[in-house]
Design a protein that fits this description.
CATH class of the largest domain: Alpha Beta
Helix content: 25-40%
Shape: globular
Low-confidence stretches: none
Oligomer: single chain
Number of domains: 2
Number of helices: 5
Distance between the termini: 12 Å
Strand content: 35-45%
Length: 240
């Protein structure tokens, strides 16, 4: 299930280049079911939602970030958890404003996005960049390293991660051979994204790209709802 949220400020709006954590905080603050919000916050594993990059139609890039000239922005949020989506709708309707770095934005409208026809073989593209990482020992220390789309392990990891999330959400034991994820590498754009939380910065290499999904319809739909790769709830891995 997927929503598109349209927000607008009274004047122009300055948006930092690295806004993922800001949008994540807005989402948590709008969940009407406080127990659900608390439960999601406390989870150390998968949170089963993702969101897109901001869409800014009238924009200007400056050194400090992106200016929305008319103050309008929109983004999509997606989840296989229908209760979460319904609770977000309630939260936005209860209070038609959000806090964006101390500036008040107003909710212009909320759309329920029509789901595309899910097929056993689908070409998709990212609405937010994908992160894939692995742990490797370097100089006697275990380090987390980014995997690039030119590496076959990138796609193996996407498949394993998707199946692991699916099995966790539905309490099933589907195997990773039920899905195949690949790319012709015609479009791959690397993005370096900084997440700042509690004055601690983490840096991520992520990729906007086109992908091919082939296999089980339920897994492909779950990829659409929940996202691909890691850190979906921080705005990574949304596809369309």
């Amino acid at each position: 299930m997927r929503l598109k949220i349209h927000l607008k400020s009274k004047n122009s709006l300055l948006i930092p280049f690295n806004y993922n954590y800001i949008i994540s905080s807005i989402i948590y603050n709008k969940i009407a079911d406080l127990e659900l919000a608390k439960e999601l916050h406390a989870l150390k594993t998968f949170k089963f939602f993702t969101f897109s990059q901001l869409s800014i139609q009238k924009r200007k890039i400056i050194k400090e970030g992106i200016i929305s000239k008319d103050g309008a922005v929109n983004f999509q949020i997606s989840s296989p958890n229908e209760n979460l989506i319904k609770s977000l709708v309630e939260g936005y309707l209860d209070d038609l404003s959000v806090n964006f770095k101390g500036k008040q934005l107003f909710v212009e409208r909320i759309e329920l996005v029509r789901e595309p026809e899910i097929k056993k073989h689908m070409g998709v593209k990212t609405l937010s960049p994908i992160i894939v990482r692995t742990k490797k020992e370097v100089d006697g220390k275990l380090r987390i390293l980014d995997i690039y789309p030119s590496d076959k392990n990138f796609y193996d990891s996407l498949e394993n991660n998707l199946v692991k999330k699916y099995n966790k959400f539905y309490n099933k034991e589907v195997k990773s051979d039920k899905i195949n994820i690949s790319s012709n590498m015609r479009f791959v754009k690397r993005k370096r994204i900084t997440i700042e939380k509690d004055h601690i910065k983490t840096f991520h290499r992520a990729f906007m790209m086109d992908l091919e999904l082939e296999g089980d319809l339920n897994l492909i739909k779950f990829a659409y709802d929940c996202g691909l790769g890691e850190k979906n709830s921080l705005g990574f891995g949304m596809i369309i």
